[in-house]
Amino acid sequence: MLERDPELAAAAHAVDELVAGATEGGPARGGILVYRGESGIGKTTLLDEIHRTARDRCTVLTARGGETLTSVPFHVTRQLLQPALDRFDEEDVRLLCGGHFDLLAPALGLAPPPPPSAAPADPQGVRDGLAKLLGRLADRLRDRPPVLLVDDAHWADAESLAWLDAFTRIRRDRRLPALVVLAHRPLSEGTRRTGVPAFLAALADRAVVTLGLHALTLGATAALARDTLGGHADEPFCRELWTVTSGNPYETVELLAKARDRMLEPVAGSASLLRGLGAEARGGGLVARLEELGAGPTRLARTIAVLGADSTPDLLASLAGMSGPEVAENTELLRQARIVTTGADRAARTGPDAGDDPNAAVAGAPAHESPADPGPADPGPADPGSAHPDPVQLGPVHPDSAHLEFAHPLIASAVYGSMSPAARTALHGLAAWALTAAGHGPAAVSRHLLEVHPDEDEEVVRQLRAAAVEHLAVGAPDAARRCLERALEEPPAPDSYARVLYELGCASLLTAPAATVRHLSSALGLPGLDDGLRIDATYRLAQALAHNNQLREAARVLADEAVRTPPGTDRRRLQAANFMYEGFQAAEEDGPGRSRRLADLTAHFTGADNSERALLTVRGFDAMMRGEPADEVVRLCDLALVDGIPARGLGWTDATWGFEIPALTGIAYAFSDRPDRAGALFTEAVRAFEISGWSGAHVAFAHTLLGLVHRRRGNLPRAQHYLEEGLRLADRVGNGLPVHWDTACLLVDTLVARGRTAEARSVADRYSFGPPWPGAIVLPDGPSVLGRLLLAEGRVEEAVATLEAASEALIERGRHHVVWAPWPLDLARALAPTDPDRAAGIAAEARAHAERIGTRTALGEALRCAALIADPPESRRLLTEAVDHLAASPSRYEEARARLDLARVTGSAEALAEATALATTCGASLLTTDAVTARASSHPPQ
Q: Worst-scoring range by mean pLDDT, 311-325, 370-384, 419-433, 777-791?
């Protein structure tokens, strides 16, 4: 290759590092390489050279994006992984999938999609599962570590790039167990990238090196000309060649091949002819050259442009209206004209000894591949940058040979663009039916149906709806959305229009809540939904509104539909969601009234069915928030479970009710001094999500809930671990999600408890923890925790203002749980030095609410607060009682704080040592002296 020494050296060094790390058995030393350059600049030839140099020591996996395949999810993933997995038997493949074969196999094309009745796959779960699969595969291939070559990555599907993005994020030191090499055209300018450009930019940010490929210099162009046409090529000829092609390797090679075919003398007198010949190598000139070959080759080339990776001889014959021999004859003409290549051509390009390579199934062509996916890329002899533009001479091509590809993407684009829109659309329609007749599934057919003109064809609508189901089953909701949006344009018949809108709303629920709201609202306003679908559409609409921070509207649509629904299970389902979303609001007009209506509705419920159990859960959570007796809260939660676990249909992954119902049960247990029951529920949540392949916001929230359990038990380091993991998982999904607020709140509270105020402030700032508050409540009460942080920072006036605002909002709603919302405890401490009378009144009210709650934690905390404001003798008595309560509670950290206060009041060194030891066990530092505690102490330390 000419003038590519730095690029090849970077690749050689990266391969050496990868192999060295695998050989030594030490840390992985792979990474990402990115090559960028305009079309025809030589990216494919560069990857071919990397392939040849790496194949003796590595397992080389290749893939290429396609201009007409960007809508096919995971087509690049399949190209890369299918050949590698062919090396293993089914049992080994299942082991590589890590228990998620049923989730990953459809995405890999190794198994058909699940039946339509199956729940959609979690996109994040599929990405993470595939990333882990590649990690396990790399571990199995340590003797020949994997090198992944992705050409034309700008035409890769977004799902595959999301997978590579997930895989390359697994190591913070950027040292991967594989080498990922991407080649693509330059990204468009601007910072607001989405989809494929965003993923490519993210991958480049983590690359070991990103190199731009430049055009050939005049000297390299001259060397190439003399190598091809003879050493007598003179300077004027070479300069004109360089000027006409602008040093583009592909155009230079093509132009030299044409000059040789025309037996053009490479001298100054012939230089003026180069510009005309050059026009034939691109755009309209290339199409004109194609048409000169005749109607048969032209029709075949256009059929290949539409079929893309499905360009097998049988399909080409069917779609182009040719016999097998005619396909072979026209293919040979296209090959000789350097327009297409065959599987044999591409295998030959891999190297002269590829057939002897024991890893040829991986390092060369794949042993099998999905009909919807292109095989490993090879540019053919006219690839940009090649110094040997000789035409392929392999003899006639048999109709049963491998599928055909264009020799270069520029040719594919030119041929595809040369067709009139009507002809192109018609050919896509014929391709759709040909693929269907050949046994291809709806997902494989859908990329063609997306291109045909709407024509009120119910069969097109049916196919697109079926394709959407398949896309959802492999974790590709965006592909499903495209199919359903196109189905609406057809349009569907009036009696099915609302159902398609409903399906579209469900497809976009996780990725585009605002779009879901539009689609489901429209579906509910049209005839065509039966009673069951109306209920489900309303429920999902409310979920989307809630995810879009429109809790008030979510509650309203549920209430309106509940009024129209006859009494029974369906109405109770709507009522449960209505009460839940009303209670989730950060502010509501009549909180106490809602609580009374909920209590009246559930007063005689026994948990006879899931609708009753869901309402009992919501009632138990509301009772906890209101500070009702904990024994009653626990009784309600117990009724909502069956033998201590969620009833069938109310589980963590159940789509009918959602994960909120079991979550509320566990949260109510946690704040009722039953962290053991909460922990069992939340541990099961993580297990259920992992089994189902869910790894997005759901798993993040499950980790947050486990962090809550450990915080309530006083295991602060463990709580911090789970909460930080929850934030890490949430960060991968998006920004500003409800789980971010809850997890950041708990983490701030935990870090303040540990005495790590600066870290707590860093978390608060990073996640904008503070006003303006979201429209939903925060777990635990956000303003109360922020006030606690401000007190720890010594910002007393700001803390008092924050805590007073919290008190006003919560008292108005009748929410008095002093552990969920500890504002009275901290406000009393803050006011004690300057306004002891008001502080005492607040502490007394907090004690009264704690006595109503009745948990040992609430009582101990309230007594400790009261003690800090009481006279010394009373303070000792109250603290002694507080220690007794907290010692009998699950709250070890709060017990340590109370023991420290008592030790300081009594002046006992032994008690101080015990308190310090317990705090150390909890992972907390109690070195900071509470000013109010010091004031209340009547004895100096011993």
A: 370-384
The dihedral region occupied by 894, where left means phi > 0, alpha psi between -120 and 50, and beta the remainder, is: alpha
Q: How distant, in Å, are the alpha carbons of 141, 746, 776, 820, 892 from that of 784?
A: 53, 11, 15, 9, 21
Instruction: Report phi then psi at 895, rounded to 5.
Output: -65, -40
Half-sphere exposure of residue 614, counting CA atoms within 13 Å on the CB side?
28
Q: What is the dihedral of CA 341, 344, 347, 351, to 10 degrees?
A: -100
pLDDT value, residue 369: 36
Per-residue b or e along 748-787, where b marks 16 or more CB atoms closer than 10 Å to that residue's CB: bbbbbbbbbbebbbebbeebebbeebbbbbbbbbbbbbbb
Buried b (16+ CB within 10 A) or exposed e, 468-500: bbbbbbbbbbbbbbbbbbbbbebebeeebbbbb
Structure tokens at 524: 């509910």
Name the nearest CA neighbour of 834 among 861, 800, 874.
Answer: 800
CA–CA separation, 7 and 281 (whole Å): 27
User: CA 863 to CA 875: how far, in whole Å?
Assistant: 9
457 token code pair: 């064809």
Tokens in use for 427?
Answer: 């050919």
3-state secondary structure of 209: strand
pLDDT at 171 over 90: no
Q: What are phi and psi of 59, to 5 degrees?
A: -95, 105
Contacts of 401 (CB under 8 A, 6+ apart): 313, 342, 343, 344
Among 96, 68, 91, residue whose Cα is nearest residue 81: 96
The whole-angstrom separation of Cα 748 and Cα 825 is: 17
Cβ distance 566 to 531 under 8 Å?
Answer: no
Dist CA 740 CA 53 (whole Å): 47
Q: Is the pLDDT of residue 806 over 50?
A: yes
**Residue type at position 195:** G
Verdict on whether the full-model pTM lies above 0.90: no
Contact 893, 753 (CB under 8 A): yes
The pLDDT assigned to 173 comes to 62
d(CA 552, CA 586): 10
Closest CA to 566 of 539, 597, 594, 535: 535
Query: pLDDT value at position 280?
Result: 65
3-state secondary structure of 463: helix
State the Cα–Cα distance between residues 502 and 523, nearest whole angstrom.
6
8 A C-beta contact, residue 755 and residue 896: no
Q: What is the pLDDT of residues 623-670, one digit of tens each?
A: 999 999 999 999 999 999 999 999 999 999 998 898 999 999 999 999
Q: b/e per residue, 137-161, with b = 16+ CB within 10 A? A: bbebbeebbbbbbbbbbbbbbbbbb
